[in-house]
Amino acid sequence: LSGCRLEDVKAASSGPVWYQIYLVGGRDVATAAIERARTAGFSALVVTIDTAVSGLRERDVRNGTKELLSGNPWVMLPFLPQFLARPRWLAGFLSDGGLMAF
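RESULT FIELD:
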């Protein structure tokens, strides 16, 4: 998950860049992500292994992370003003595919 496109990160860097991948979504998703990083010019691959159980972080509960990731538009409705207050960010987020599907 990132707030920036891979290609933009590489373009902004004057040195070598590494790509960190989380193994979610299956082999095809990982292969496509690795190929995209290779095409963008990333020179190293960092594989992150994580637990299959999400942590219960107080800040995530307080900030509404669960609701935002639920995919239910009615539950996400209270966050609409925050999205609309940042139209450039929202347009970029949506044009880059939005949230990843796990």
